[in-house]
Amino acid sequence: MRAILLGPPxxxxxxxxxxxxxxxxxxxxxxxxxFRKNIKEGTDLGKKAKEYMDQGKxxxxxxxxxxxxxxxxxxxxxxxxxxxxxxxxxxxxDALEDALKSMDQKIDxxxxxNVRKELLVExxxxxxxxxxxxxxxxxxxxxxxxxxRCDSCGGQLQQRKDDTVDTVNNRINVYxxxxxxxxxxxxxxxxxxxxxxxxxxxxxxxxIVEKMRNK
Length: 215
Ligand code: AP5
Ligand code: MG
Ligand code: ZN
Description:
3-stranded antiparallel β-sheet, binds BIS(adenosine)-5'-pentaphosphate, binds magnesium ion, alpha/beta, Rossmann fold
């Protein structure tokens, strides 16, 4: 099962990825998570990516494409994968298609999570992430049982640096200009699966799995 999660910032890609990878037993590959890990570890890639991420801009295609191509060669991707936040430009989508072709593979599903722009800022700004295990919460929609602490590991909850109102708005604009055209791109290829991302976290997860199973 080879799939892509598409949707604007805060739509619920990372949240739904948890359900999908459990259901289909494939690795979750989030370019945003990989960049954040590199920033934390102070790698060269992290230093380069940080400049762009802090402003809500896309990291240049060359850096991102190479990173994903390498990741897809790893053993755990043999039977499939779930990409989250990649591709984000037509260039990245074409590069992905070429890379998969050379491995005799193709994308089976592109899950497009639809959420109105008005709801996205609140979702992103209220998000909190465990600094130790990266579990995601939301202050109002999915709060931890103990304020500021992770339910799974007790770690401290933090806010992402790019989850401020201004940066989220920039990210939404970047999405509309550079990523939204991928909806058409994948519709034409017959692999797009639309889901209503405004329902509860559990309902959206159920819809995604059902639609994938029935496609
Ligand atoms: P990335 O980390 O991918 O961020 P994003 O696309 O902006 O998406 P988010 O992670 O913000 O949102 P999400 O859809 O995962 O939502 P979540 O499930 O957490 O990328 C960050 C940056 O990295 C980019 O800006 C760019 O600079 C760089 N980058 C990454 N990939 C790149 C690429 N391919 N090319 C170039 N640059 C790249 O949910 C959000 C919140 O809402 C949570 O608090 C959650 O609990 C809550 N929530 C989720 N679902 C629901 C629901 N149904 N109801 C109520 N609340 C919900
Ligand atoms: Mg995410
Ligand atoms: Zn934790």
